[in-house]
Amino acid sequence: MKHIMLTISITIGVSSGILIADFARAYIAGRAAEELAVQMVANSKTSAEELQATAKQQAIVADRRNNARRINTETCNFWKKEYQKKSNDFNRLSMNNACSRL
Asked: Quick one: angle between helices 89-99 and 2-85, nearest 10?
């Protein structure tokens, strides 16, 4: 009878130890998953901010290009009109230079 009680006690002790170890592993895995999730959220925010900054820079570059095209077109048109009014070498050269930028 002592052997049976000892065996039952050992079995309960080992089973309890296994349960506690499994619980500890699950807890640690859960904490690691939480930390990973926090990191992923932080990284996604950084990526979103970087994308917004890049988009803003691209918009600025596009605006500058569009403004340059508009100014070059206006300058070309101005010199075309001037050359039509008065056909001389200065107006022709100015028109050719302005229109070559288009």
From this structure: 170
**In sequence order, what are the residues at sequence separation of 6 or more whose Cβ sits closer than 8 angstroms to the Cβ of residue 91?**
79, 82, 83, 85
Contact 73, 98 (CB under 8 A): no
The number of CA neighbours under 13 Å toward the Cβ of 18 is 6
Give the pLDDT confidence of 58-72 residue by residue, as tens digits: 999 999 999 999 999
Residues 3-49: pLDDT tens digits?
777 677 777 776 777 777 777 787 787 888 888 888 888 777 777 78
Tokens of 62: 């596009």
Neighbours of 80 (CB within 10 A): 15
